[in-house]
């Protein structure tokens, strides 16, 4: 039975898309206002780094906790709790009176935002058969790029018109608006009265083993004994940090290498995120297309992820470009490939694990990616500082772009060794 995304499944995807957009919008307000806040509160770079670390550390820990919580209480309530916490935390930034206040608000924001991906991935698994999951994941995951495109002009307008406090209040309030629609429209298919019998049958067209033992389905000890868990965890650990590099260093790279300022480089940065949005959607579409053409699920994911890993490799040549637009094209290709990879690796978790424990697995993998996102910037700083002192900053960037180019192929190889057929996890 072949069917496009059904009427109500579009509602679900739209809800997940806007939640992810709001999630990334709330987390980037601080970065966009950093220079102005630093002047008002006399921050040093060390002060700001402590605030960033507060967010990242809380986010990493809470991914593990939210994954387990959502498996226990369900996506409807779990997602609601997550967005309530992060929306309140976002608004509370406006009450901060110093570095400590911002650090506390960022810690709460990181804790709340960690529920987004475990809940979203589990929602997709609840509403979509395997052949459609990567496409649905690609659509909602593109919200992170839309936030990066729309966020800067929106925050700049609010800041210039009403001040920095209102920027946090307005963006934080969006979560509560979303929550109204979530509570009104979302529930698992078996409890949703708005779908037809045909759509319900299509959603459940996959067969999955059912776990009866409730203690077993939430056992982290048993999860860490599975090769499939480590395949997902190491895949996230090796590739998520590359996206952090794109987010935090590419604007600086454009400005320092091509002698631009924030205003002049905005079009180039926006281009990267716009292309990445299409990569997220098309990446999810490709593996679904292969499945519909008769490829086994594991081969469709494996071939798609290998293709996207290869698409990242040309970023190694960025340092050899003579002007900015060729560099933008290479970085955009790599960013789009990352988002396509991300759509498939998230979906891979739902291929290998039953729905009852999926959020726990996504939380573990997300934590691994966040830890990598903490460690890789430290390595980047050491490399760039070392070669900058030698007057060879370009060489430092060459090394970093080389790491980016190789990371996905390394991750793909390790994942194949750990789970050659990406088989369904066995709990016997």
Measured distance between first and last alpha carbons? 32 Å
The structural domain count equals 2
Secondary-structure-based class equals: mainly alpha
- Which percent bin holds the helix content? over 70%
From the coordinates shown, what is the CATH architecture of the largest domain?
Up-down Bundle
How many strand segments?
Answer: 0
The major sheet is characterized as:
none
CATH fold topology of the largest domain: Growth Hormone, Chain: A
Give start-end ranges of low-pLDDT stretches: 209-216
Amount of beta strand: under 5%
CATH top level label of the largest domain: Mainly Alpha
The dominant shape is globular
CATH homologous superfamily identity of the largest domain: MFS general substrate transporter like domains
Count of DSSP helices? 18
List the secondary-structure elements in sequence, H or E: HHHHHHHHHHHHHHHHHH
What's the gyration radius in Å? 21 Å
* Mean residue pLDDT: 86
